Predict the structure.
Amino acid sequence: MTDRKQALEGLRDELIARLERYRAHKERRAGPLDKDMEEQAIEVENEDVIDTLEAEATKELKQVLHALSRIEAGEGERCERCGEAIDPRRLKALPYTTYCRACADA
């Protein structure tokens, strides 16, 4: 297994666990809102932050899963747009990328 694939699988597992923690928080599995009104306001405000973090993690997970599927198909080292090889340094820095730098900048 390639280092990149291992890194992506580790990132996938981390993102899935993170999303589960966000969902648990939103479902209030740890208990209901605090009885103190000020504390409730802070907890509700935190919901907006959790929603944003969840959306970002979901987006990143989709990218990771897409990159893994391209690796499985034998296309993981090639740009999805132009078909040229993706610079290995770019793949190391951003393992879930599916575009070469030129296509990503376009």
Residues 3-76 form one domain. The helical segments are 3-26, 37-72, 88-93, 101-105.
